[in-house]
Amino acid sequence: MKFKVAQEPFLQGVAKVSGVVPSRTPLTFLYNIHAELKGNTLTLTASDGDVFLITSIEVEGQKDGSVLVPARPLQDLLKELPGAEIELEISPEQHLLLSTAKGQFTIPGEDSSRYPSAPQEKPDNKIQFSADDLKKILDQTTFAVSHDELRPALTGLLLQFTEDELRSVATDGHRLVKLVKNKPADGGEAIEVIVPLRTLNLLQRNLEYSKSVEVFLATNRVVFTTEDLTITSKVVEGKFPAYDAVIPKENPNLLSFDIVPFMAAVRRVSIFANQINRLVVISLSPEEIKVSAEDPDSGRKGQESVEGIYDGDPIDIGYNAQYLLEALRHMPGGKAQIKLGSATSAGVMTPEKQDQGTDLLMLLMPIRLQ
Q1: In this predicted model, what pLDDT tens digit does every residue of 86-113 receive, in sequence order?
Q2: R_g over Cα of the chain
Q3: How far apart are CA 20 and CA 51, in angstroms?
Q4: What is the pTM of this model?
Q5: CATH superfamily membership of 250-364
Q6: How far is Cα 34 from Cα 77, in angstroms, rounded to an integer?
Q7: Are 42 and 123 in contact (CB under 8 A)?
Q8: Where are the domains of the chain?
Q9: Per CATH, the architecture of 125-244 is what?
Q10: Between 20 and 30 A from 38 (CA), which of 51, 194, 246, 249?
């Protein structure tokens, strides 16, 4: 294999796929990037065994071939060669010989036959999103995905496609997010999969410069393709819980507020919360809305009145400050509302005004007050 390429596009391609390279694995060949040259197209592939990232860049090809190159030293070297024109060649010993106008560098490589192959055929079921729409979906839902490996079905985002709508659902048992969107005309057949959080994080990092994303779904894998990247991933096995059953149907008490000042008050008061349960108490009455916290062990206390409108019976309800702040941070628009039943039942938070064709709700389980 031999080719010439400018530093910047080569570094961009290497950086894209390096995001999936594991930091620790007994399968040492996964520390590498698989580089394959055909004509003037260099295809770079990296994997952690479950997820494959694939991208291609245009180069000045001189001799076709393939090799495994350690991801870390290659990326580190390219970062230190800004603006350089680079010539690369693979030696008979499978070493990468990289030359610039002023230097020569050798990175030991490996035989590419050791590397696993990514599935080539895409599933038949396809849905297309604009990159902006998909970014919004992921931003508003993935923060609630569980990190508990003992409950594997909760460690991914449920993508559920019915006849006329798309549903994205995440929960960790303490909070739940459900986002429903009108289904596009070419939305494919009814299907549901649980996509691992790691896969979605990798996708989010690579959406910034994309315009559209095609999503191909099967019961055992999912494929995301943008203009310059393909992500192929296994899905999470297991049955997602019946999430609709835990969403209260009637919560008669309604709190409406501006998100930014409400968040600021919660952040300030949470400084005084117990560091184990992070409890903040929201005291609600038609006359006053108050946020408070205290840590009996240290004697610290804090409380603050906040602006808002409350229509309902007086109630004191406790939440984990971190969960509450994360929900508020991912709530679109400037105003939100929380529908409440009692101090021990889940509160349902929604934006005051939903985006067109979208229905978003976030459910927060309260902490029982002593």
Answers
A1: 999 999 999 999 999 999 999 999 999 9
A2: 25
A3: 7
A4: 0.90
A5: DNA Polymerase III, subunit A, domain 2 (3.10.150.10)
A6: 17
A7: no
A8: 2-114, 125-244, 250-364
A9: Roll (3.10)
A10: 51
